[in-house]
Design goal:
Layout (H helix, E strand, L loop, with lengths): L6 H19 L24 E3 L7 H9 L6 E4 L2 E5 L3 E3 L5 E3 L3 E5 L7 E3 L5 E3 L2 E3 L14 E3 L5 E3 L2 E5 L4 E4 L2 E6 L2 E5 L4 E4 L3 E6 L2 E3 L6 E4 L9 E6 L2 E3 L7 E4 L2 E6 L2 E3 L7 E4 L10 E6 L2 E5 L17 E4 L5 E7 L2 E5 L4 E13 L2 E5 L4 E6 L6 E4 L2 E2 L2 E2 L34
Length: 421
Amino acid sequence: MLAPMKPVLRRILWLGLALVALAGAGAAIRLDRWHVPDPIPSAIGAPADVAIGPTGQDQTDALQSALDNLQLGQRLMLSPGTYSVSRVLTVSREQVVISGYGATFVATNPDQQAIVMNGRNSTLVGLTLRGVGTQRLETATSAKVVVDGEGIQVLDVTIQGGASAGIFVSRGSSIALIGDKVSGTLADGIHITGGSHDVLVQDSSVTATGDDMVGIVSYERDGAPTRNIYVTGNYLAGNAWGRGVAVVGSADVTVVGNWVEGVQKAAAIMVAQEDGYRTMDPTNVLIASNMIADDQNATQPGNSRMATGHAAIDVNTGSGSVRGIQVIGNQITRTRFDGFRAQGNICGAGIGNNRFGAIGGTPIALLYRNCTAEQFTCGGNTLDGAALPVPSGCSGGGATQVAGADASRLPQVRSSLRRAP
């Protein structure tokens, strides 16, 4: 696989490519939202910081007591070192900051290792969380960070291992996940569900997870779709199972300017409705200017699972539907199966200005139903540097306009809380 690029270099590279591709297609993306600073919410008049340091003993009780006693706008400063934690910690105070650059929490209980962030406008920044567990668990308490509330931000947090998801967002609104590093979890790296909305995932890396690296999922039982999700500038690589980015049943989603490589057994980016999980129907999804490489053509030793046969970018349904998807300006190279595939009850799609290379299957495979070629538009695509003819089932004229996420509704990042690299 290619070596990881630093976030700043990735941003510069893909910002340039995105501007070229999107300007030509007229896609409605606001790339200026990639940089979204804002000040500390209550810098003026905030109470003095509280400090705590490692003791070499189990510090769960002391840490929870410190969190419970934080005042509005106060910051808990964790001194560098290793902290042993045996139970779930909960951040319930409003507008507080937990800052832990150089500090590492080491979990000792696989099913009790989460930091639950449900305090309105609270921030977790700079902390390293070392997970525990050799068997995948499905409980929220076995995740590393659980986000359940409004205005919560997880910035520059490093997650190493864990029995479940790395960052689990459920019922969250106005959420920012920025500069995080997630690796080695047994389930998803980042999972967003439960009707969460207005979520920004930016400049993070997710590697070697046991399932989807970024999952955006809406179940029928949720009552409302997970919506207005913006995923940009992330490096996603090398998961043993699952997809790179999975948009399952969700609405108003933008996946732009990400680097996705080495997905071993499934699609690099998938948009789907899944009967087995009783998900909703995805709508209004924009996939633009992503770099995708080595999809399902490299396997780590010992990974004997069968490949799914998905395309690198795959859109599929069960008994439901997908309505409104645009795939534009992506670069897709070295895939075992198709480059792009639409299979199932799918309508209203645009596939334009994508660069395909070394594709093992068909560059663009259109296996949709209940739609017409006039509602699928294809143009400006290339294969190994040569113009790709418009495939059967697609119209070469017209344009499919899909807005994706509304960037104006995304939260402003509390950049002043972050430590300069």
